[in-house]
Amino acid sequence: MAIKLHPSIYSHPGGWMKRTYLDHYGISVTEMAEHIGVSRQNMSALLNGRAAMSARMALSFEKAFGIDADTLLRMQAAYDLAQLRLRGEEPDVKRMECVGG
Asked: Which pTM does this prediction carry?
C-alpha cells in the first residue's frame, strides 16, 4: 500500500528553485532571467508560484544548475494535482464498466 501525502506538502518547483538556488547563491530574479534569456516578469511569476514550470524553463535550469529537468517537471505535475485535490476540483468521472472494480 502506497503512502498518501497530504496535498499541502507538495512544493511549487519555482519556489523550491528560488529557495534552493537563487537565495542560497545570492542570485537576483533579474540576473537569473538575463542568464537564461527570459523576461524578469516571467522569471518572477515562476519563482513566486504564479506560473507553471515549462519544459523549456526546466531545461534552462538544468543547464544553469545541473538539476534534472525531469525532476522539475515531475514536481510541477505533482503540485498541479495536489492543488486540484486541495480545491476539491477533481473531475466527476465514473470508472469504465469494462475495467471493473
From this structure: 0.82
* Residue 88, pLDDT score: 87
CATH 1.10.260.40 fits 9-86, yes or no: yes
Taking the CB of residue 98, how many other CB atoms lie within 10 A of it?
5
Cβ(22)–Cβ(29) below 8 Å: yes
What is the residue extent of each domain of the chain?
A: 9-86
In whole angstroms, what is the distance from residue 88 CA to residue 68 CA?
31
Q: Cell 498541479 identifies what position? A: 80
Residues of the chain falling short of pLDDT 70 = 1-3, 5-8, 100-101
Q: How many of the other CB atoms lie within 10 Å of CB of 58?
A: 22
